[in-house]
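Dear colleagues,

For the upcoming journal club I promised to circulate an example of a predicted protein-ligand complex. I picked one with 2-phosphoglycolic acid because it came up in last month's discussion. The inputs are reproduced below in full, followed by the predicted structure.
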Amino acid sequence: MSKRIPVSAGNWKMNGTNAEVDALCDGLAGIDQIRGVEVVVAPSFLQLARVSDKLATSGVHVAGQNMHAAASGAFTGEVSPTQLREVAGWVLLGHSERRQHFCESEEALNDKVRSALEHRLTPILCVGEQLHEREAGDTEAVLKRQIALDLDEIYLPDGFVIAYEPVWAIGTGKAASEVEAQDACAYIRDRVSQLFDPAKANTIRILYGGSVKPENAGTFAAQPDIDGALVGGASLDAESFKGITQAIADAKR
Ligand code: PGA
């Protein structure tokens, strides 16, 4: 099995003025010295071109936080993969905030994953259960359903990226335990193995997301089925994000 390259991804959500985002980019100087990790940041659409320019020589990949599946058309307020591809190489898809607040369905997500791959964007597909689903013992059923529908009839490239983000751990300061996270990520890999094949599943990068900080990132990344992190709040602080990226690199060395 070839080694999976870990990923450290920062989701900046709807945060930052131009000046703040510039400062954040400046603060990421030197992150390319951390070897063996793919680093990705996802600013708002409005700041994508700016951040792309600022980080052009930094080795950091830039991601959209969402996209429409269609290449163009009458979809007011949306951004197409063709437009995104001009300023970014990656895209977050199915973040729980999009699922919860913007009614993103599994069917729409399936179209988006297919479209992103067709447009040579690297998706980070987010999945994860809500608190009431975990408490009801439904975590695996939820993940099984999301993976099956989101990846239905998708040609999955090696190294595809899935982020396991339990909704109750996002922005709450209450991260999953490393055992909970490892169990869910192992289950996701097993589902990919069942739906595709074991060799493919071995190449998939599975990230943990939900209250990741420099202090806990290494513990998550030390788990056998966790290949990095998708970070929200802590990615808005350059030193924290560099600390998380370093912890992932150290854990996977
Ligand atoms: P958090 O967010 O790190 O602030 O919990 C994670 C995410 O939404 O991806």
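Two points we might discuss: The first helix runs from residue 18 to 27. The chain has one domain: 7-252.

See you all on Thursday,
B. R.
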